[in-house]
Amino acid sequence: MGMSMSFMGKGLPSTQMVSFVMGTLYKQFVEKDIKSFEEFHMAILDIFNTFNSALPGRHYDAPSRKDIEDCFARWKKAPEAKRKELFVDFMKTSVNLSRLDDSAMVTGVVTPPAAMAAKRAAENLPQLKIIKMVPDVVFVPTATVLALASVKLTRRMFLGSIASPST
Length: 167
Hints:
By secondary structure, the chain is mainly α. It is built from 7 helices and 2 strands; from the N terminus they run H-H-H-E-H-H-E-H-H.
């Protein structure tokens, strides 16, 4: 009994697990009968969609379109025997865990108490007396979601303007 329990905690070694997952993904990928870049791109995005829907709490960022185009060009030119190896290498280098940036984390922590303080202050103003009718259970999450969305959009616009070349 003790011997079987000791094997349960270890599981598969990481190299075997990665090989198994990549083999399964490649099998799913090849079954799509890819002939064009658009089909290749959709298959890659489908894989990332499968990752993100199957693994709770963890989300992975899909590679950029340019990276996928480069991989497709190499994949198309490669012989059948090398395509799996090329796909596995691409997935190993392209799969990045999506991370929250610090600004989103700080906004998510600071906004709820700030929303409550703002609501309490607004209830004392005669022009905003109607805010008393909105329950705290609705007001605080709404304010938090709006703050997080604005931080994300602002960050995307700011980083987008930096990343794009000025011509």
